[in-house]
Design goal:
With 275 residues, this protein is an alpha+beta fold. The protein has helices at 2-18, 22-67, 73-81, 180-183, 209-216; strands spanning 93-101, 111-115, 118-121, 147-154, 156-158, 164-166, 172-178, 186-187, 193-195, 203-205, 221-229, 236-241, 244-260, 265-272.
C-alpha cells in the first residue's frame, strides 16, 4: 500500500510537469492498483502451494515411519545397475540411519549426535562433476559444494566374533546430497533441534539432561531420511575412499524424521519446502 501511495504521488508530480489530464492520471493509478492486487494474489497462491507441499511431504514421512516403508535391497540394486529404471520418477524413498549420542554438554545445555553411515565432505573435489558451481554446467574440474554422503548399502563379512562388519576393502553404494547443515534447504518447527556445521557432531538437541536421558539411554534413536534420486547418467559417479570402491548417486533430501524406535514417537521433523 505504501508503494502504491508513493507511486501515486510521483504520478501526480509527473502529471503536473507534463500536463497530463486527471483522467489519464486516474487510469495510471488504477493500473498500478491492479498490478498490486495481481501480485498479492500470486503471492497467496504460491504460499498455499508451499503449505500444501510441506504437509504432503510430512504426511508421506509419517506414513513411512509408521509402516517401516524403507528402501529395499532390490530398490538399491535397481538404482545403481539400471539407474533407477524400475523406481518411480519423483518419488521419495526412505532410509533409516542410527543416531549415536555424544556425552551430554552441560556447558551448552545440549545433547549432540552423529549420524551413523554419513560422511561429511566439505568443498568436495570428488563430487565436483555432479555438484559443481551453478555456472559450471556440470563440467568436471569445478570446485564442488559441501556434500554429505549416506551409505545405502555396503559389503560385509563375518569377523572372529561372528559379527557382521564392513569388509576392509568392500564396496559402498551411497547417496550424495548437498550439505543441508550448511545450505539451510530444510525447514522445521522444532527449534530445539539444530544442525551442527562442524565435522564431529551433526545435530544437537537443546534440552535439559533429564529430558535427553530417557531418549538416549536405550540407544534407540534413529533418523529417517526421504531421498529423491536423480535418474540422469550425469548424476552417477564412481570413486575410491580408503580401499573402498564408492558408487554414488546424486539425490535431494525431501524430509527428515527423528524418532525413538522403542516408542515409535517422532521427536523432530525437517522438510524441504522448495519444489
Amino acid at each position: 500500500m505504501l508503494r502504491i501511495i508513493s507511486l501515486s504521488l510521483i504520478l501526480v508530480f509527473i502529471a503536473g510537469c507534463s500536463g497530463q489530464s486527471t483522467a489519464e492520471l486516474r487510469r495510471l493509478q488504477m493500473l498500478e492498483v491492479q498490478r498490486a492486487e495481481e501480485a498479492a494474489r500470486e503471492a497467496q497462491k504460491l504460499a498455499a502451494e508451499r503449505d500444501t507441499r510441506i504437509q504432503t511431504r510430512l504426511n508421506d514421512a509419517h506414513n513411512a515411519w509408521e509402516n517401516d516403508r524403507n528402501l529395499t535391497s532390490i530398490d538399491i540394486t535397481s538404482l545403481f545397475e539400471n539407474h533407477g529404471a524400475q523406481l518411480t520418477a519423483g518419488k521419495t524413498y526412505f532410509v533409516e540411519f542410527e543416531l549415536q549420542a555424544a556425552r551430554y554438554n552441560y556447558g551448552e545445555d545440549k545433547q549432540s549426535f552423529t549420524i551413523v553411515g554419513m560422511r561429511n565432505l566439505p568443498s568436495s573435489k570428488v563430487y565436483s562433476p555432479i555438484f559443481p558451481d551453478e555456472n559450471a554446467l556440470y563440467q568436471p574440474g569445478q570446485k564442488a559444494k559441501s556434500v554429505l554422503e549416506f551409505t545405502l548399502r555396503d559389503e560385509k563379512e563375518e569377523n572372529q566374533m561372528a559379527q557382521l562388519v564392513e569388509r576392509e576393502d568392500g564396496q559402498r553404494w551411497v547417496a550424495a546430497v548437498l550439505n543441508f547443515k550448511d545450505y539451510e534447504s530444510l525447514v522445521t518447527l522444532q527449534n530445539s533441534w539444530r544442525w551442527e556445521p562442524g565435522l564431529f557432531d551433526d545435530i544437537s538437541w537443546h534440552v535439559p539432561p533429564e529430558v535427553a536421558y530417557p531418549q538416549t539411554s536405550s540407544r534407540s534413536l534413529s533418523m529417517q531420511i526421504g531421498f529423491r534420486f536423480c535418474p540422469l547418467d550425469r548424476c552417477y559417479l564412481d570413486s575410491n575412499y580408503r580401499k573402498h570402491a564408492i558408487h554414488g548417486v546424486r539425490a535431494d533430501v525431501i524430509s527428515i524424521a527423528i524418532g525413538n524406535r522403542d516408542t515409535d514417537n517422532i521427536l523432530a521433523e525437517f522438510v524441504r519446502d522448495a519444489l
